[in-house]
Amino acid sequence: MTKRIVILGGGTGGTLVANRLHRHYRHRRAGFDQVEITVVDRDDHHMYQPGLLFVPFGLASRSEIVRPRRAQLQQGIEFIETGIDRVDTVADTVYLENGRELSYDLLVIATGAQLAFDETEGLTGPGWNERVFTFYDLAGAMGLETALAEFEGGRLVVNVVDLPIKCPVAPLEFCFLADWYFTERGIRDKVEITYATPLDGAFTKPVASSTLTALLEEKGIHLVTEFNTGSVEMDDDGMSGRLVGYDGREVPFDLAAIIPLHSGADYVGRSEGLGDDLNFVPTDKATLQTLAKPNIFAIGDATNVPASKAGSVTHFEGEVLVENIIRFLEHRELDSTFDGHANCFIETGFGKALLIDFNYETEPLTGHFPTAVGMPLLKESRMNHLGKLMFQWVYWHALLQGRDIPGIGADMPTAGKHIQSKEEATV
Question: What is the DSSP code (8-state) at residue 159?
Answer without folding.
Answer: E
